[in-house]
């Protein structure tokens, strides 16, 4: 069972369980380990088209819950918008117990979307090679601003950084 982490998410959980999902992605189960914009926007679109999205947040909650104003109750409008139609659970993926919960969730998942810095999942022992061996049918989508290698490999890819690099700012 997946517990909601906010009243706004709770209403979405109830909606998802009382109303059958429809759309081109209905029946697709996606585990969303992403944060900020790239990954959450990707999974937002999948959710809008009927995919069952379970957003995994750190125990303290996604940092964008505080990115306001404006706020609705305790959550920023930014967070609510990019995470609509999703369920969420708080898990400490840096802990063995948290990774065990994730492994259980991935048994029934079709897609895993994450945007950690390259090497983070490897550091936790659940990198792409491990996931491929344990869950051969799982699609693992990694979103990264600069990839894992090259002159900027591993660097964060926030909008403000890109704007500065190209001279827009």
Query: Quick one: biggest sheet?
Result: 5 strands, parallel
What's the count of strands? 7
Order of helices and strands: HEHEEEHEHEHHEH
State the helical fraction.
25-40%
The low-confidence runs, each spanning 5 or more residues with pLDDT under 50, are: 1-18
Calculate the mean pLDDT score and round it: 86
**Order of strands across the biggest sheet?**
5-2-1-6-7
What does the radius of gyration come to?
16 Å
Overall shape: it is: globular
* Structural class label: alpha/beta
- Number of helical regions: 7
Strand content: 15-25%
Report, as a whole number of angstroms, the end-to-end distance.
Answer: 45 Å
Report on this model:
- The chain has 169 residues and is of the alpha/beta class.
- Helix content is 35%, strand content 16%.
- The protein has a 5-stranded parallel sheet with strand order 5-2-1-6-7, sandwiched between helices. It has a two-stranded antiparallel sheet with strand order 3-4.
- Helix 2 links the parallel strand 1 and strand 2.
- The longest helix has 12 residues.
- It is globular.
